[in-house]
Specification:
The structure holds two protein chains of two kinds. By secondary structure, chain A is mainly α. Chain A has twelve helices and no strands. The longest helix of chain A has 40 residues. In chain B, the strands form two sheets. Chain B has a six-stranded mixed β-sheet, sandwiched between helices. Chain B has a four-stranded antiparallel β-sheet with strand order 2-1-4-5, covered by helices on one side. Helix content of chain B is 36%, strand content 27%. Chain B starts with a strand and ends in a 5-residue tail after the last helix. By secondary structure, chain B is α/β, with parallel strands linked by helices. The chains are: A mainly alpha, B alpha/beta. At the A-B interface, helix 7 and helix 8 of A face helix 2, helix 3 and helix 6 of B.
Chain lengths: 292, 251
């Protein structure tokens, strides 16, 4: 009897894991099959090389580049904000801050990641953009600059918390060795701790990157909905995610070519995040330092 | 006999816990002085006074004077970074940086801003020769120090300390994580280094203290019980407690 109970429990546990995996497979399957039928009508070459994305207009163009440029642009701006700030915070918390301060600040920072992204989007549109317009005349109402900056603020805790974890897991003895040699805190941080924790720090940056690429609400609200091949942060752009939102909420007919574009865009996004996650996994495996 | 290190009326507290009480001791130059005593007796705390490594412990409080060459190193105008260039430390567990052997040994010089490659190479070689490791690693200085054996790693750490040419070496149980063969090598090294350096070594190994040290001090429960020449401590201790500890009757 007991044996059957054990078997039953094991079965349920297995089932739970299976459901998760099956869901993932299902998503990939739908993405693939819909985009394959999209690529039967639009050649991959056109998809990659055409410089315009106007599937909803009369003169249809299916070049993904404007959406990719919008996505990369907002993401790069976000990283320019979050990387220096996040790393500085991580080094401060692990090397300088008193343990009590660290224990208060870290959870407070992580609240940043708990704010609903729609709030961030609204904040970018209604607060940051008007503020920036005072400084930069000619800044459009929708632009990648304020969306990117706010997205950068959102991903600060990804970088600061994960990098701080990486720094804290460097053995105390290395820090002692460096101080014992007469190194200052700053020298110890940058010559010993950061290099020793570098794989963890790089992984945190890649995860933040991947999070920024997939972020939807902020860019959909604040960056605009005009696919445009540009690196100018002051004008409206459209990201892959924002485009998907736009079409999903619109009234395009199911099964039409316009409808299938969101799967083509979706699989492009998936390829990006998939590659990034794999790189971070590979780095973690390859560069895990053995200290003992 | 010239006095190199000295402690005068030293009390150390961690919060309310008294770790050292009224320690008055001198440590002679160019000799090996061993600090022995049971765990928790304060010998490591005492050792770490001389390069101010206790400063990182938040609850650490000190009263009294700690002198190097007659200078109180806890005075306000003392630069701790400068002090530590003169007072090298070797830790219990080998703790090389996850860098190449060369970069490990050159670390102290590089953080002083020395960039001259020729000079660095010479100093690294000299330090490795002094640490009796040169012949074993001279062909692969770019190999990670972590790929070496425990005994070799500890000698890298000693070389790293020697490279900045300190005058004092503090060693906190430097052989406790090593096998007997590696221990012998490090002990021989310590004996050969005392001509140039003042060495203070904490050890749990009574035979080791007997083999390598010129002076020995016995600590117990935060008190300095006895300090004398090593052969006196081991053959004719004045205190009963010392005798009991040496002969293994407690501790």
């Amino acid at each position: 009897m007991k044996k059957y109970k054990e078997k039953l429990i094991e079965f349920f546990l297995k089932l739970t894991a299976l459901v998760t995996i099956l869901t993932t497979i299902g998503i990939i399957w739908v993405l693939l099959s819909e985009s394959i039928s999209f690529f039967k009508e639009v050649s991959i070459l056109e998809f990659i090389t055409d410089k315009q994305w106007t599937p909803l207009f009369a003169r249809k163009h299916f070049g993904i580049m404007p959406l990719i440029s919008g996505t990369i642009l907002t993401t790069i701006i976000a990283l320019c904000v979050s990387l220096p700030i996040g790393l500085t915070i991580a080094i401060y918390l692990s090397e300088y801050a008193h343990i009590k301060i660290k224990k208060t600040i870290k959870p407070l920072l992580e609240i940043l990641a708990a704010v609903p992204t729609v709030v961030y989007g609204f904040f970018a549109l209604m607060v940051v953009t008007p503020f920036l317009q005072n400084i930069i005349p000619g800044l459009a109402g929708f632009n990648s600059l304020s969306a990117g900056i706010v997205m950068g603020i959102m991903i600060i805790p990804f970088i600061s918390s994960l990098s701080e974890d990486a720094l804290s897991s460097v053995p105390r003895s290395l820090r002692d060795a460096s101080y014992g040699m007469g190194a200052t805190r700053l020298q110890t941080s940058f010559k010993v701790m950061v290099p020793a924790a570098s794989s963890g720090i790089v992984v945190s940056v890649i995860l933040a990157f991947s999070r920024a690429i997939g972020e939807t609400m902020i860019v959909a609200i604040a960056a605009g909905q005009q696919p445009r091949l540009t690196l100018n942060p002051l004008v409206p752009v459209e990201t892959i995610t924002a485009y998907i939102v736009q079409v999903s909420l619109g009234d395009v007919a199911h099964g039409s070519l316009e409808y299938k574009t969101i799967f083509a865009a979706g699989i492009t996004l998936f390829v990006f995040t998939f590659i990034l996650n794999n790189i971070s996994y590979w780095i973690r495996k390859k560069f895990r330092e053995e200290y003992e | 006999m010239k006095i190199k290190l000295e402690s005068k009326n030293v009390d150390v507290y961690y919060d309310k816990l008294k770790a050292l009480s009224n320690i008055n001791m001198i440590i002679p130059e160019n000799a090996v002085t061993a600090l022995i005593g049971p765990s928790g007796c304060g010998k490591s705390t005492f050792l770490r006074l001389f390069n101010r490594m206790n400063d990182y412990i938040d609850s650490f409080k000190l009263s009294g004077d700690v002198l190097i060459d007659g200078q109180n190193i806890y005075e306000k105008n003392i630069l701790v970074d400068e002090l530590r260039k003169n007072v090298g430390m070797v830790f219990q567990k080998p703790n090389p940086f996850p860098k190449s052997i060369f970069d490990n040994v050159a670390y102290g010089l590089k953080i002083q801003g020395i960039k001259d490659k020729e000079f660095l190479r010479k100093r690294v070689k000299d330090a490795l020769v002094q640490a009796a490791l040169w012949d074993e690693v001279k062909d692969d200085l770019n190999k990670s120090a972590l790929s070496l054996s425990g005994g070799q790693q500890q000698r890298v750490c000693i070389a790293r300390t020697l490279a900045v040419e300190p005058t004092i070496l503090l060693m906190d149980e430097p052989t406790s994580a090593l096998d007997p063969i590696a221990t012998t090598k490090v002990e021989q090294l310590i004996t050969s280094l005392k001509e140039k350096y003042t060495i203070v070594i904490v050890t749990h190994n009574m035979q080791q203290a007997g083999r390598i040290s010129d002076y020995t001090s016995f600590f117990y429960m935060g008190d300095l019980i006895e300090f004398d020449k090593t052969d006196v401590i081991f053959t004719n201790p004045k205190q009963k407690q010392t005798e009991n500890y040496i002969t293994g009757r407690f501790g």
